[in-house]
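Data card: per-record layout.
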Amino acid sequence: MVEKKILVVDDQYGIRVLLNEILQKDGYKMFQAANGIQALKIVEDEVPDLVLLDMKIPGMDGLEILKRIKEIKPQVDVMMMTAYGELNMINEALNLGAINHFAKPFDIDDVRNVIRDNFNAKNNLA
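The structure for this 126-residue chain is written out next.
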């Protein structure tokens, strides 16, 4: 089985480290970015299977990063993370191609299950 690659994009160091540690233990190859410029470079160089993308990032916000990811690598799946219950932003993200979203603070087991289910669904389609 090919190792799945996940990129975590969040300006909060603690969130990146938490997701990185937990998901690495689940067998994923992990990448981290603190901002949009780093994220887009990793997307171009590594082509992750999944990006966990925070909605609120200083500079280039999550929606802008999502748009650019979809322009350069449309096959990359993106799940949004948001601490804000802003339905219009979530809906816009889904319209731009995000496959899912979850609210912060999140339950790490919920996140792991959603990621696993997403990869399983994709494997079943392949």
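Known properties of this structure: The chain has one domain: 5-121. Residues 5-121 form a domain with the Rossmann fold fold (CATH 3.40.50.2300).

See the next section for split statistics.
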